[in-house]
Specification:
alpha+beta, 38% helix, 15 strands, 10-stranded antiparallel sheet, single chain, 510 residues
Length: 510
């Protein structure tokens, strides 16, 4: 089928007008920019009769097919197509200064919630957030003793194609931008080993008198999945300044939570080379988890302290005095960094190597500020070479990656491979000698022991219910993974150990 490129260009311009990405005064300018990208010197006047879609995806796919036919795309694979369609969308996106002006105007008119909602929709409209890929993610809830855990299988990140990987090896190495979070990514054309960002814009935010920026993750895991990052490329470090910045942010954006990954390997699960936080407008299971044990600290009478009923080890601080919360959080951090309790396998150091740190999360509860401090330890052993407080070997068939901020709060981000594996498991489990087939299958035999447990637990498996049963059991495995990552376990010994740490805090902070 021949592609009428003039009509597709006009459809894209009409889409941009409909979404108010451009104004009527920008149409000729935007058209000429697109012609330049497509290496066209003229275009025929056309009338678009069909309804303009709500997403640019179908239009861009057609233009990309045309560009591939014309030899404008070096290799018609995902990596090269992504570089090219981002370049096209970059022709439509207003300048950084204009986006900031619009954002500030919306804050003035309707408040920060109004402004972030607009910026989130804008980031989707300009195809920076690729909603078509995110829609492929599998999502479900699983009830556990800790509440409803939020489960996702992540299918939104495209795998690198072999041609692009091979070509990238031969490229001259570049250190610009220094990483994927640097402010210099705005408008960057990208390359085979670095995504294009012509459609990327960021919002300046001042945190504790420092210049930071707000953007959205291009592969959002939850509503308004924001990244707040330092304007300076500097390594992550959890410190008193971190607590200041977190609380300062939620003071300015009270509808958002903001948290940080830990600053040590294994328990970090993030880009440790660039100081940043993650936040957004979403309620996580940990946020609604109940307090299990409340206590007071005489040094901070204005603050309510509690241990949270959660598989990981969480201290919750609530109060309306930011200075007290910051000081108390720092005192807890300093106490934890040197705390050891061999009876529950917690060692603060191996020689000079530190192991203890914190994953902090800030939010508002009405007029109150709230800090959740999740205690972390990254020590390894012969038995657990990936980490003692890390997913253990028996759950690696589901997930073996680090447990970062998002999962700490109860949203599982599971690998894309799992979707096909679960479907094959479901198919085999209801067949004659299904367990035998699973054991012999190279792709899914890693699930064999777990599949036996599921088979024994559910004697009435059928084609109609088996897949849902597997999804439910994956959720229970995720709860176990979080328990593995908890430094104080859920048994009597672990909880007594947690209370010993609390008692030491109360003694130290008199």
């Amino acid at each position: 089928m021949s592609i009428h490129i003039d009509a597709e260009i006009e459809r894209l311009l009409q889409f941009a007008l409909k979404k108010e990405i451009i104004t009527i005064w920008d149409v000729d300018l935007a058209r000429n920019k697109i012609l330049e990208v497509l290496q066209l010197s003229d275009v025929k006047a056309v009338t678009v009769d069909e309804e303009v879609p709500d997403s640019p995806v179908t239009i861009l796919e057609t233009i990309l097919d045309w560009a591939a036919e014309q030899g404008l795309i070096e290799d018609n694979t995902v990596t090269y197509r992504d570089l090219f369609d981002t370049k096209i969308m970059g022709c439509l996106v207003p300048s950084q200064g204009e986006i900031i002006r619009r954002f500030d105007e919306l804050v003035f008119q309707g408040g920060p919630k109004h402004a972030t909602e607009w910026f989130y929709q804008f980031s989707q409209d300009v195809h920076y957030i690729r909603t078509d890929r995110i829609a492929k993610n599998e999502k479900w809830l699983v009830g556990t003793e800790y509440g409803d855990l939020q489960m996702t299988i992540n299918l939104s990140k495209p795998e690198k194609d072999p041609v692009a990987i091979a070509a990238a090896r031969n490229m001259q190495k570049s250190e610009y931008p220094a990483c994927l979070l640097c402010k210099e990514n705005v408008g960057y054309a990208g390359r085979l080993d670095h995504p294009a960002r012509q459609n990327h814009r960021i919002i300046p935010v001042t945190l504790d008198d420092e210049q930071w920026f707000l953007q959205f993750s291009p592969y959002v895991y939850y509503n308004e999945h924001a990244i707040v990052f330092s304007g300076e490329h500097k390594p992550m470090k959890i410190s008193k300044d971190s607590f200041k910045k977190l609380l300062h942010f939620v003071e300015q954006y009270p509808h958002y939570f903001l948290g940080s990954n830990a600053d040590l390997p294994i328990v970090g699960g993030s880009i440790l080379s660039h100081d940043h936080f993650q936040g957004g407008h979403h309620t996580f299971p940990m946020e609604v988890a109940e307090k299990m044990y409340s206590f007071s600290v005489s040094k901070y009478p204005s603050i309510d302290f509690a241990i949270v009923k959660w598989p990981m080890s969480v201290l919750r601080l609530q109060g309306n005095n930011q200075a007290d919360l910051i000081a108390a959080a720092d005192d807890i951090l300093q106490e934890w960094k040197t705390y050891s309790d061999e009876t529950v396998d917690i060692h603060a150091f191996s020689g000079e190597t530190p192991h203890n740190t914190i994953t902090p999360i800030a939010r508002r509860r009405g007029e109150l500020f709230e800090l959740d401090l999740v205690l972390r330890n990254n020590r390894t052993s012969d038995e657990h070479p990936f980490g003692i407080f890390h997913p253990h070997q028996e759950v690696h068939h589901i997930k073996k990656e680090n447990i970062g901020l998002i999962e700490v709060m109860g949203l599982a981000v599971l690998p894309g491979r799992l979707l096909d594996e679960l479907k094959k498991l479901a198919e085999f489990l209801v067949e004659a000698d299904g367990l035998g087939k699973i054991e012999k299958d190279e792709e899914i035999n890693k699930h064999y022991e777990w599949a036996k447990q599921v088979y024994d637990k559910y004697p009435d498996l059928t084609e109609a219910n088996v897949y849902d049963v597997l999804l439910k059991e994956v959720g229970h495995v995720f709860a176990t993974i979080l328990e593995h990552a908890g430094v104080f376990k859920q048994d009597e010994a672990g909880q007594q150990g947690f209370k010993r740490f609390v008692k030491q805090l109360q003694t130290s902070l008199k």
